[in-house]
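Quick one, probably user error.
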């Protein structure tokens, strides 16, 4: 069942996600609903906070993006990033593994707001999969960017926090308008 995606101004987006201690049937159902929601909204990633749950859980699928390549290494060997999708990350830990690069980002919780964000170009990731089994990989390109954007969400960090000050200043009116609209919609419910 697709879930409503919360927008900037909803307090849950600023909450650090609780660690998931076991993959219960409720977690499994939430993962399925998050995939359905992400595909409907045409996103490459979705964090639990974006559907109202402050949990260490995100789903990612970069297969739809053809113009921005992803790289993957497993146990130090290059691997097929597309075949690695879709990806469920539970309790993920991310470590930078390359120099910072700038690239375009958007966010389903910030409709029509886009900006170039600087992040490490490669990252090492440790997480649990959807069966609660630990796994590790190194990501580059779009996959590295998507992982970092989503793992930020799990810690209450948003891409506007990563914008440089000029971009942030330029986008301030749109960001504030979105926040006000979200709060007004909430107040009228
Ligand atoms: Zn986002």
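Nope, works fine. Designed sequence:
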């Amino acid at each position: 069942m697709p879930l409503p995606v919360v927008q900037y101004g909803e307090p849950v987006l600023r909450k650090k996600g609780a660690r998931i201690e076991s993959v219960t049937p409720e977690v499994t159902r939430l993962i399925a609903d998050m995939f359905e929601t992400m595909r409907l909204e045409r996103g490459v990633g979705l964090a639990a906070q974006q559907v109202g749950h402050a949990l260490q859980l995100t789903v990612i699928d970069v297969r739809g993006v053809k113009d921005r390549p992803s790289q993957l290494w497993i146990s130090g060997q290059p691997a097929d990033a597309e075949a690695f999708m879709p990806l469920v990350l539970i309790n993920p830990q991310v470590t930078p593994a390359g120099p910072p690069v700038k690239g375009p980002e958007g966010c389903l919780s910030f409709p029509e707001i886009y900006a170039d964000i600087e992040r490490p170009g490669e990252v090492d990731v440790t997480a649990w999969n959807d069966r609660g089994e630990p796994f590790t990989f190194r990501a580059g390109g779009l996959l590295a960017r998507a992982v970092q954007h989503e793992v930020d969400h799990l810690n209450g960090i948003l891409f506007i926090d990563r914008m440089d000050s000029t971009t942030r200043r330029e986008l301030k009116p749109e960001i504030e308008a979105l926040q006000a609209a979200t709060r007004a919609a909430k107040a009228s419910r």
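The helical segments are 25-40, 141-154, 165-187.
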